[in-house]
Amino acid sequence: MVLHAGKGKDATRRGGSNPMLAGTDPAYAANLTLPHNHLGDDPLPPDTVLQLVRDELLLDGNARLNLATFVTTWMEPQAHELMAECVAKNMIDKDEYPQTAELERRCVNILADLWHAPDPAAVIGCSTTGSSEACMLAGMALKRRWSKLGRPGRPNLVMGANVQVCWEKFCEYWEVEPRLVPMEGDRFHLTADEAVAHCDENTIGVVAILGSTFDGSYEPVAEIAAALDALQDRTGLDIPIHVDGASGAMIAPFLDPDLEWDFRLPRVASINTSGHKYGLVYPGVGWVLWRDRAALPSELVFNVNYLGGNMPTFALNFSRPGAEVAAQYYTFVRLGREGFRAVQQACRDVATSLAERIASLGPFRLLTAGDQLPVFAFTTKPEITAFDVFCVSRRLRERGWLVPAYTFPENRTDLAVLRIVCRNGFTHDLADLLIQDLTRLLPELEQQSGPLAKPETSTAFHH
Ligand SMILES: *Cc1c(COP(=O)(O)O)cnc(C)c1O
């Protein structure tokens, strides 16, 4: 990350580039070097630049072997084609690109239907750059609804300590007290009792996560809703739920149709999802939907007329490429309900079978089994002292696998886990290869005299 513009190597370095790129002018090749900190004086030929920048990007990891990320790393060529045609379209310019706007509207309707909105016509929603922006918008709506009650205290938001970092950002940016319910023993996410116990008259809402980032487990949304119903009966406090379905809102509708977590529960005011996670689109798209206009205070919706027409907007970003929205619509049309079910089921099948096989290797204990989100976390058994999860993560990296190791939040910071996210394209065959690599590594790890890797030098990215 560049936070300051220092004097970089390009000031002194000369030569070293590929002479074949220079055509007939070797002197030019000898001086060809990529600028790091300032613009070069003159333009360069496009093919040369393409080659040089591409070469440098070789150092990036292989996304298909990245079992850390939830974000889509494969789409079919037709989707690439469509996205390439749409990158130049500015999503926000609904007057110039009314059909892109129409595709966005259709996607919102499709999600309203998938999430069982009782009155789909009342639903209001939009695309965003991802779940983070979607959560900011949902949190703002909760805060605004609370502030209309005119209560004097400081607003708070109740959620498990396992929330994704975007909720901590929301609280910091919008000056809301984060009421993080700590983990306790083997309870790694929010429960109904704990949620209610943390609520008071200044609680703007409860965030329930469908698909915890830490271990892939679903929080019990229906139980939380029932407990908040009971709280309302007892005290009159009417506290809405926002469901952070970044991953699970695109899994549960297809694989757990009987699980009630969505707008079937009257207390659920809003839901977000990441189109670029199990929505199966490349990075850059999320969605947020409110049950009805009462859940989204109208002051948050701005009407702008700069671009001709009168356009309501309630996202944080203004300009944004239209490609992701077109790709989301493509994916909805392409797969349909049955296609989505098949893709998500395949991920869950790989996750559950891989989890079982890892458990049967011997040294590991599963925290989750991959049967909710196709994601599971595991740790080493207490008797394993020769190595720890950080060693496993580091050694797997030698083969190109990115399997993050990290410690749990407050109260369970003693617990360090590995987590595997099974995504579309991570096949049983690739899972076999991972098991082979793990099996080959274990005897070496078992010969260590103790854990070698320091947690702070291991792969930490796990969001
Ligand atoms: C990934 C994730 C987010 C953030 O989503 P982005 O789309 O990456 O902005 C928020 N909440 C949960 C539960 C997540 O898994």
Protein described:
The longest helix has 38 residues, at 323-360. With 463 residues, this protein is an alpha/beta fold. It has three domains: 9-57, no CATH class; 77-332, Type I PLP-dependent aspartate aminotransferase-like (Major domain) (Aspartate Aminotransferase, domain 2, 3-Layer(aba) Sandwich), CATH 3.40.640; 347-457, Aspartate Aminotransferase, domain 1, CATH 3.90.1150.160. 35% of the residues lie in helices and 13% in strands. It starts with 25 loop residues before the first helix and ends in a 17-residue tail after the last helix. The protein has twelve helices and 13 strands. The structure holds pyridoxal-5'-phosphate. Pyridoxal-5'-phosphate (PLP) is lined by residues 70, 130-132, 135, 164, 166, 209, 211, 213, 244, 246-247, 274, 286, 463.
Count the E strands: 13
CATH C-level class of the largest domain is Alpha Beta
Low-pLDDT residue intervals, each spanning 5 or more residues: 1-16
Q: Please work out how many helical segments DSSP would assign.
A: 12
Largest sheet: 7 strands, mixed
